[in-house]
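Hi team, as promised in this morning's meeting, here are the two structures we talked about. I've kept the exact order from the run log so nobody has to guess. The first one is mostly here for context; it's the second one we should focus on when we meet again. Sequence first, then the predicted structure tokens.
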Amino acid sequence: MFDIDEGVHLFNDSDFFFSAHDFFEDIWMEAERDEKLFFQEWFKFQSAAII
């Protein structure tokens, strides 16, 4: 599994939003299919929590 702490920190710092995007994009490109499913479900959950 991936350590996403750095990406979360970058995302929470508005000055580094695009760096966070690049961080998570790199993880996505390296992820296996089942890991991508995890991230998709995690994102849905996080998005629902914001709404």
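And here is the second protein, the one for discussion:
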Amino acid sequence: MSKKFLLLVLAALLAAVLTSWAYADEAAAPAVDTSALESAINSAANVTAREAELAAREADLGKREIELVRKARELNGTSGVLVGRETQLAKRELEITAREADLARREAELARKTAELPDATAEIAKRESELSKREEALAAREAELLKTSDAKKLTDEFALREQALIKREEDQAKREAEANRLDELAKKLADREANLAQSEKEFADREGALNAKAKELEELEAKLNAHADELGGLEASLNAKSGELDSKAAEISQRDKVLAGKETEFKVRAERVAARENLLAEIPGFNPDTATESTIIYTFGLSKAERDAVKALHDNGAAKFRNNRITQAYDDFVKAAELQPRVNYLSAYWAAAAAERLRNRRDDAVNWVNKALAINPNYKPAQELKKRLERAPAPANPPVRPQRRPQQPQRKR
């Protein structure tokens, strides 16, 4: 039974009682039924139980919200923001608790007023019953006087009846005062009904807000779970990348070993170059920065197989150049230069010199002379050839012919 229906029943009951008092006649008035009031009290108790249930539900939602806030703080590290929100929610909980205490106090007052209503109704019923008994006695006496036709008794009975009527009027005035008091009580009950309706609306709004908050927290929990899944995927990706890094580290370690081997090989070559330079230094007038013969190849620090391959190609090109087979000489010089592009500046120089002699190969000549100077910037023949190429687009002076290979110097024993 809703509160509005309960209040309508109380109002109808009070209207019926007041109507019976206003139109009471000589007949006996019926007793007032208090079962409706008891039903109203039970309904008020049901309202209190519902409010207690709402409070328990709010407490459960508060616990759930606190648990979700704890999980959110553990997952994404936003403890500061969540603590602030938790503080705000705690403040709102305190406000709701204070409002609930005030509502309980008001409901207790209403219950006390409602409990007084059956007592007043019972007293009115008792008085009406007494009045009915007196009226019945008066009617019996009037009938008896009519039977005996005694004038004196009739006069006395009329006087008594008049006194009874006066008393009845007094009782009627008292009843009207009581009715006025009940009207005041009904007005208070109407005010209490309005207050209860407002409280019920506030509870409904608060319940809606709490449901919205619970939904928001559920969405937040879903987001946090999704974030946790993303973190798990990221962790798996990091593990996979860690494995890749381990494999790359092993590859780098292997490359370090290869580089160490190459470094050892370079050291051996450097030692060979130093030995060759020592030998070539014994040749009168030999300078690797000015010489153009193939003896320079011995200063490159190559192994015997590498040196022999480069020297064979270069000597073939030199022979063809001397026989004026410039195109074929250019090809051999290019092959020799590309066979050891990091050290063979001699073949690069002679490839530029051959290209200078050919038509429409000036760009190739510039390219190869730049490569020769990139390997040995102090190589005088290449410097002079570059200046000559820069001065004129066409070859002005023929390059110096390669000299015949001198006899290889003998090692000192």
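Starting points for discussion:
Residues 294-391 form a domain with the Serine Threonine Protein Phosphatase 5, Tetratricopeptide repeat fold (CATH 1.25.40.10).
The chain has two domains: 3-237, 294-391.
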